[in-house]
Amino acid sequence: MREPNEHLRLARESTPSADVAGAAMSRQELADRVNAHLFEHTGRLYELDDNYVGKLERGIIRWPQAAYRDALRAVLGAATDADLGFVNTRRLQAAPVLQRQDEEPLGGEPDVKRQEFLRAAFVGVGGLLTSPSTLLDLLAPLRPSDAPKRVGRGEIEQVRGAADLLVSWGHSHGGAGVREAANAQLRWFGQLLNAQATPEVRVELHEAVGLLGHATAHMAFDACAYDDARQIFKFALACSEEVGSWHLRAKVLSSLARQEIWRGEPDLGLTYAELALVRADRLTATEQAMLHTARARALAKLGRYQDTLRAVGQADDAFAGTAPDGDPPWMGYYDAAQHAGDTGHALFDLTVQGHDTEAAPRLLAAVDGHTAGYVRSRAMSQTKLASLTMAVGDPGEAARIGLAAVDDAGRLHSRRAAMDLAELRTYAARHAGVPEVAELRHRVTTALAS
Fold first, then answer.
1. Would the pLDDT of 293 be above 90?
2. Structural domain contains residue 12
3. How many domains does the chain have?
4. Does the pLDDT value for residue 1 go beyond 80?
5. Where in the sequence is the domain holding 439, given as residue range(s)?
6. What CA–CA distances, in Å, run from 195 to 156, 162, 189, 403?
7. Are 373 and 173 in contact (CB under 8 A)?
8. Residues 131-143: tens digit of each pLDDT
9. Which InterPro entries would you find in this protein's record (predicted)?
């Protein structure tokens, strides 16, 4: 049985918070301070978060990589790894055959796992989910309700309306505030999969419920509730597989890819993106652009410079041929601003690694191009532009951009937007003596504490 790492938890809880007077350091604050320490001492950007610290404290990971251990010791004032409960499990095994779940992966293993996943996926991701009742097993147990016994196009329009509302709310307000309501909607409408319907209605129903599942999962992702999001994404993917909806399948796999990239698993994210492109001929140009940008973001995180540029080029080529009238309705968000922001995010990672790229003009185009309904996308691109400028440009200009980003991001209920602000604060630390930067750091800290 896995044992929690009480040494690490106690060390964290014994360290006072720098953000909240009288409180102990939170998991996210510890992650932020470790990221700042690593950036200061290595010049590289790290993206540890509260989820990773939670894995350490729960004993899921017992021996983090050396750089993380060094930073954790420095931040928590520990003299040795043992003081923080870290144990090298590899040394405790005479002849290990399989990698344990409590060890971080060794170099080379992610490629093997990705290839195995791809081979299995060709059988069909939802291949074992052969009936609507089996699909419902992926959701929480349902209580009896007054769901109709037969479904027609009226019910399908209701499901689509609920999905549209959630998507719109997420774009303008963030997903963290209404997750429970979204979950309740999905549980209720999910019951319709068991109702009687004509073959044509059945296809549209699965696609509509799958789209609602995707919107619900994305709200969980935006709240960084990764396990919940992954489970609901898989439900949505199963709905698409059940009726052979290649378009919904591509959208769900794209979002799964982006979540894994966000949470520090770019190799798995690359797997999902490439899986969605297996039959690119069945997808629209806009969908292909969306997936190539996901590939680019994963490749950039993996440090594959030329491959990233090639993927951005493929995304640009695909987007040049976009025909919105032929896209599924849910692809309406992927306009020129979204494309500029997604590719700009990918190139951001290359730029902070020392390469000369078009990241800044693309991110600026995204900020200028996002309309009023896309507050979260505009805020996240603007925050990223501020971080980029802080890292490689003029800190005063970066502070000006960052203050505008705080105004947008501070109104959102989005954990992802908050994490981007925390990243900006990390970049700003090296210029803390600049008055405008000091004001930005104060504003960011205030926004994150609210």
1. yes
2. yes
3. 2
4. no
5. 370-450
6. 12, 19, 11, 52
7. no
8. 445 555 555 544 4
9. TPR-like_helical_dom_sf (IPR011990)
Quick check: 230 pLDDT over 50?
Answer: yes
Where b means 16+ CB within 10 Å and e means fewer, 45-54 reads bbbbbbbbbe
DSSP sequence for 32-97: HHHHHHHHHHHS------HHHHHHHHTTS-SB--HHHHHHHHHHHT-SSTGGGT---TTTT-SS--
Lowest mean pLDDT among 36-40, 191-195, 376-380: 36-40
* SS3 state of residue 382: helix
pLDDT at position 6 is 87
- Inform me whether the pLDDT recorded for 46 exceeds 90: no
Residue 70 has pLDDT above 90, yes or no: yes
Q: Is the separation of the CB atoms in 156 and 205 below 8 Å?
A: yes
Beta bridge partners of 241: none
Q: Which of 69, 84, 99 marks a domain boundary? A: 84
Quick one: pLDDT band at residue 49, thresholds 50, 70, 90?
Answer: confident
| Nearest CA among 85, 79, 77, 84 for reference residue 33 | 77
- Residue with the bigger pLDDT between 73 and 449: it is 73
Q: Is the residue at 313 inside a domain?
A: no
Maximum mean pLDDT: which of 136-145, 149-158, 306-315: 306-315
- Residue 441 and residue 240: Cα distance in Å, rounded? 44
Q: Domain for residue 42, yes or no?
A: yes
**Which H/E stretch holds residue 315?**
helix 305-320
Last residue of a domain, one of 60, 84, 108: 84
What's the pLDDT at 251?
97
* pLDDT at res. 130: 41
% helix / strand / coil in the chain, to the nearest 5? 70, 0, 30
Helix (H, G, I), strand (E, B) or coil at 300: helix
- One-letter amino acid at 412 equals L
What is d(CA 182, CA 220) in angstroms, rounded to the nearest whole number? 9
CATH of the domain at 52: 1.10.260
- Backbone phi, then psi, for 284, in 5-degree steps? -75, 165
Task: Give the 3-state secondary structure of residue 103.
Answer: strand
Ramachandran region, residue 45 (left: φ > 0; alpha: ψ -120 to 50; beta: rest): beta
Q: Identify whether 168 is part of a domain.
A: no
**Residue 374 tokens, joined:** 């896309």
Q: What is the CA radius of gyration of the chain?
A: 22
CA 327 from chain centre, in angstroms, equals: 24
